[in-house]
Amino acid sequence: MKITSLHIYGFGKLENVVMENLSPSIQVIYGENEAGKSTIMAFIQAILFGFPAKNQQDLRYVPKKGFKYGGKLVIETDDQRKITIERVAGRSSGDVTVQDERGNPCDLNDVLGGLDKTMYKGIFSFNIMDIQNLQLIDSEQLGSYLFSSGLMGSEQLHKLSRELTKEQEERFKPNGRKPVINQLLTSLKEEERNVLQWKEKMGQYDRLQKDLDQYDKALEETQFTKEDIEKSIKETEAMLTIQPLVNRLEMLQLQIADFGNIESFPHDGLSRLEKWQTEAVFYQSKLEKVEKDLHEKEWEIGKIRVNEEILEKEESIKGLVKLMPTYQQTKDQLSLLTTEIAQLEKRMEGWKQDLEWHDKTDQELEALHTSLASKGSLRGLLKDHHELHIQKQRLDEQFQLAKEELEAQEERVKDLEQDQLPNHEVIKMKELVEVESKDTLHKEVHLTEQLLKQLEKQLDAQKKNNQNEMKKSKQIAVTSLFIGIAGATYFYVQSQLIASLLCIIFFSILSFMFSRKTKHTSSSNELLMEKEEMESKMELLRGKLYSTDTFGKVEEYQKALAKNEQVVQLLQKEQLLLSQCDRTYNRIIQQFEEWEGKNFAFQDNWHNWTSSLSLEQISPPFMEEAYDKVVQLKGAISDKKELVERQKHFQKVVETFKNKLDPLIEGNIEIDTSLSLEEVITQLRVGVEENMEKKKRKQRIQELIDELKEEIIGLSQHEHNAQKQIQRLYEQAEVEDEESFRQKNQENIEKSELEKEISLLKSQLAQMENSYQLSFTKSKPMDTWHSEKAELEEALKSIKEKQSQLVENRTATKETIRLLEEAGTYSEAVQQFELSKSKLQDHARKWAIHATASHLLGKTMDYYRTVKLPKVLKYASDNFRFLTKGNYVRLLDAHNERTLMVQHADGTKFEPKELSQATVEQLYISIRVAVAQVWSDEQKLPFLMDDSFVNFDHHRTNLATKLINKLALQGYQFLFFTCHQHIKDKLASEPNNQIFSFDTMKVGEATIKR
């Protein structure tokens, strides 16, 4: 399995990070401290094995800025399938989705080969902390630690074995005293002896227990008899309390029998009579008041006058009132639109004057094509025009220089031809010189003179060339500066500011270099020195020659021939230069012809483009500005159309409003038509509101009148009912008037009082019966009840004396039993003995569990030792030999001890504690990589290494990087996280390795670039 890409939605401080096309060999992820390397490492483990739970110690890396928690990995399996693993926040470990490139779901457990996070971190993932932990391990335990790492990639088995052994020893040791089981065995023997002593005392103890049971039984019978007597005494005392109430009840029943038959009197008759009399008076007075109010309301409603005509137009008036703000806004908008249209037409007229389009109509202007393609064509034509202009200036300058140089060269050739002697004179002079010539001294003088003249000519020519070169350099510098300014202007127009700046800087430097260019004077200096030497030589030769006093005609001819020879040579040279100037002049003429061809094509394209937009009158320098005005003019025409349409719409709204208003004010005498439209609307609205208020007021008064009429009817009915109820009470009481009714009511009250007292006595008797839990059967005299109570109290005294004697006997027996139980009871001794046995069994069971686990762990370690460890040692030996450059050849397993040893190249064997710290770290890395190599036979997963070589020196770092490069070539994938530049550079040297670097951190987002 290899990781090909990852996408972090949100994980810690990394948000929306994408890394694609990861190397199948070694992928280096480089960044400074706190850049996010450990976050990516934790992200890969979280996507593969789930997010850490909240109660775990591992960091959860929940994003702080609200980004989606999680991300996805794309992996490539050994069978060439591409599988996407996506995990986002959800349940405790997150919601995971696993599918292949076709969208088919996959089982993540099958993809990972059954490995969990702990096993993966122990086998395929290790960091600098694992290396640094080696420095904290006791040297005596270092061998065991490395041995355990060789079995599982970590010290988990070794640590678990130590913990199980510690748990066993804390519970039991064969000769120990402090372990729990040893202490329980000692206390169990003492408790067993105590139980045997108690068995001897059990005979006497049983007899005393039997006597105690008999005393308890007698006390129980005596208690029952005592309770019966006490119950009878309470009943007698209750009857002594109840008997007076019974006597009073019988007397009241005799008094109530003396009243006659008054049952026909109505219940609460007097209060009911007074109530109906009060109601009759109340309704009579209220009826008079309501009738007075009715007359007042009828008079008030007659005074109200409502204009029904204006109310019929209420809805229309309300509609206009609602439309009034819209009407005012429309008028304002209409005024603004009129002003805006006038201003727009003024600007359009100004643009037309600038473009000389006085006769152009809006329809013709709208038909013009001002697309992006047309704009692009204009920019291309302006670029061509600028280039042609620059080329024309350059050709003009070159033509002027070439023309001046050609004319000067022709003049020099003409002068030389005039200085040249005729051929017949040259032949005559040569014949005379040959005859009359003196010795070699004369020839040498003549030759030296010629050479001296040639040097003078060369100096003159060199001076002219230097002047021409300086002039050309200044011209080129000016031209370069002009080209730079033009190019910068073009790029600035194209909104390419960087290109514009680079262009002006480059051509400014070029212009400066040409302007500072100076002529080379070395050759001129050499010619001057040679001339001085030649002049000195000439003086010496002339001195020798003149001393012979042989001047004459021969010497004159010789000078003439020498001068003629020099002229001939110069003429040949100047003729050659003339031919060169002529070729240069013709080449510039040809370039002019080519430029004219390009210019003709440009003029043709320019004419076509300007004709399409009717801009023939605009020159190229102002064309771009003119084009922008054409675009603005077309936009203004479109804006004007829109404004005119809006103006028509607003005018229509105003007219509609006025058309709705006219019918409302026509024929309405209350409306003053001389007022403004707003005031008219206000009058209509006020008129509607006033009449509506009058109408509502009239309706309310009418409703009050109707209510008053109904109330009069109701009050009359109530008064009649009250009189009727009074008469009915008289009939029920069988009386004729109010006085008789009140007398009969007094008799009824007295009878009711007696009945209430009888009812109260009956209630008290019932409560007493419930309280004493007895029922009253028959009435007795009070003396009889007192004598019965005295007999029961005498019987109770006798039974209490008997009960006291039984208690004394029982207490003596109880004290004897207590003395037997002074050291605790037999049951307590047995219970303590059984409890200790139970504790012993519990601890023995736990000891057996740990012993079994330790045994199974030992078998597991033996299995790994016999099956896995040999392969691990083989791979680890190869890795360790490679890292130490053959100084150590292999790793050995000490069969009697759980530790490892290493063998030196000379055969010497060392324990890990005897090695240096750096060598131990090399050994640890060799073992960890070897474990992963062995496990890769079953499932090959990517290595995650976080700065595992940081403690190595330069030499060991090179060997370590070569080792993982070697393993990468065998098909292993490494994701190496580092903050060290030199390690990154070493790993980057291999072509198959890739480097990803963290860019500078941004707020809320970390981006990684390759």
Q: Would you give an account of this structure?
A:
This protein is an alpha/beta fold. It has helices at residues 37-49, 108-112, 117-123, 128-134, 142-152, 156-171, 180-200, 202-256, 269-302, 308-312, 314-355, 362-366, 372-419, 423-436, 440-493, 497-515, 522-546, 553-613, 623-665, 677-733, 738-772, 782-820, 826-883, 917-935, 954-969, 981-988, and strands at residues 2-11, 14-19, 26-30, 70-76, 82-88, 95-100, 125-127, 888-894, 899-904, 909-910, 943-946, 974-978, 994-998, 1008-1009. The strands form three sheets. Strands 7-11-12-3-13-14 form a six-stranded mixed beta sheet, sandwiched between helices. The longest helix is centred in the middle third of the chain and has 61 residues, at 553-613. The two termini are 23 Å apart. Mean pLDDT is 76; it is low at 138-143 and 1000-1010.
